[in-house]
Amino acid sequence: MSRTFARMFSLIVILVSIVSMVGCQQAPAASAIPVGIVLPTKSEPRWIQDIASFENNMKAAGYNVEILISELSSATEKTNVESLLTKGIKVLIICPQDADAAAAAADEANKAGVKVISYDRLIRGTTSVDYYVTFDSMAVGAAQAQYLIDKATGKGNPLYLYAGAASDNNAFIFFEGAWEKLQPKIADGTFVIKNSSQAVGLQGNPKLTRDQESQIIGQVTTDWKFDVAKILAEANLTAASKADKGTVFILAPNDGTARSIADAFAADKDVTKYYVTGQDAEKASVQYIIDGKQSMTVWKDTRTLSKGAIDAAIALIKGTALTTSGTYNNGKKDVPALQSPVVTVDKANIKDTLIAGGAFKLTDFTGLQ
Ligand code: BGC
Predict the structure, then answer these.
(1) What pLDDT score does 32 carry?
(2) 27, burial (CB in 10 Å: exposed 0-12, middle 13-18, buried 19+)
(3) Which of 33, 48, 188, 291 has its CA at 20 to 30 Å from residue 17's CA atom?
(4) Rounded to whole angstroms, how far apart are CA atoms 350 and 356?
């Protein structure tokens, strides 16, 4: 009896060690890199903030992560996704360089059984997007427009419009949010558009179709690039008469382009005062705001956005429920989405928002004490 028991016991021990050896072999694969992240560029401070936020949040959640950068190339983006797929990721978090081109990479991930989270920018034209984490981009455009409206007095104020890259779905949403606010003020004569014949042609429309937005964006795009923004602003100023200048109002889509556009307007002797918008709360722009060279920015806390993406990735890995606050249509699918709020920042509330919120320290800036 006891010999049989001893034999059975050793058999169980052998079986257990075989199972645990197999388990050991599988363990590294399971814990290797469950989440892969692909971001568009390191050449804008905005995305460097996201990288840091992802690294901190993933560490706190106890997950390994690999972050690859597309450096403004859809081809590199696709190679990055393929490289992460070979490493066995379960979830891909991707901010597309080009909304339509990224569909192919999302489809590849989907075919490999990998869940796809569109991050900040929506991938268009594919059903392979499982989730979208974004800021309230309509609110970004609306906040920029409202700022200009609040500063304008009387009628006939010169308005210069600029937009982001036509390949970025967000550029359309920012512009749409701004247009909805600005259009009634253009219609009542408060503002007069000075740098877009397309926008002038459509100024009677309270709402624009995507095609109409495309026509305007095609004329006033910065392509999200500082140099493109600067060259366009200078060309607009060269074409404008002295009467189109004086105190001017500028819708600039983000901080990087706002600084370039602001520099161009500041250099024009016929521009006596300008108001210029922005977004991202980049450090250089916060300093510009303190120095009176940029009027406002819209703070989008990347710590919140990256946390939302990571929570979603973990839920997708574990098969638990995702938190959603609505859907975004990408042309092929209503993508479940989580939308984060944004905050308007100008010189008056930098301390109460960016400093109190821990995004920056007082000592990051000069002239704020
Ligand atoms: C982002 C902005 C950013 C811009 C340029 C947009 O999609 O939402 O925060 O400034 O891209 O990179």
Answers:
(1) 80
(2) exposed
(3) 33
(4) 8
Determine the atom of ligand 1 nearest the C-alpha atom of 168.
7
Minimal-distance CA residue to ligand 1 atom 10: 254
Q: Helix crossing, 255-266 with 45-61: angle to 10°?
A: 160
95-109 confidence digits (pLDDT tens) = 999 999 999 999 999
SS3 177: helix
Q: Is 254 in the pocket of ligand 1 (CB under 6 A)?
A: yes
What is the C-alpha separation between 118 and 315, in angstroms, rounded? Answer: 15
| pTM for the structure as a whole | 0.91
| Alpha carbon of 254 to ligand 1 centroid (Å) | 7
Local structure of 105: helix, strand or coil: helix
Beta bridge partners of 346: 296
- 202-252 confidence digits (pLDDT tens): 999 999 999 999 999 999 999 999 999 999 999 999 999 999 999 999 999
| Å from CA of 45 to ligand 1 middle | 10
CA dist., res. 359 & res. 269, Å (int): 36
- Expressed in angstroms and rounded, the spacing between residue 164 Cα and the centre of ligand 1 is 8
pLDDT, tens digit, 9 for 90 and up, residues 288-336:
999 999 999 999 999 999 999 999 999 999 999 999 999 999 999 999 9
β-sheet bridge partners, residue 343: 299
Closest ligand 1 atom to residue 170 Cα is 7
DSSP 340: E
Lowest mean pLDDT among 19-33, 142-156, 167-181: 19-33
Q: Is the beta carbon of 136 within 6 A of some atom in ligand 1?
A: no
pLDDT at residue 64 in the model: 84
What pLDDT is recorded for position 63?
A: 85
CA 157 to ligand 1 centroid distance, Å? 28
3-state secondary structure of 368: coil
Between CA 3 and CA 7 the distance in angstroms is: 6
Sign of the dihedral defined by the CA atoms of residues 218, 219, 224, 226, in that order? positive
Share of the chain above pLDDT 90, in %: 88
- Within 10 angstroms of residue 136's Cβ, the number of other Cβ atoms is 18
Rounded Cα distance between 298 and 275, Å, is 14
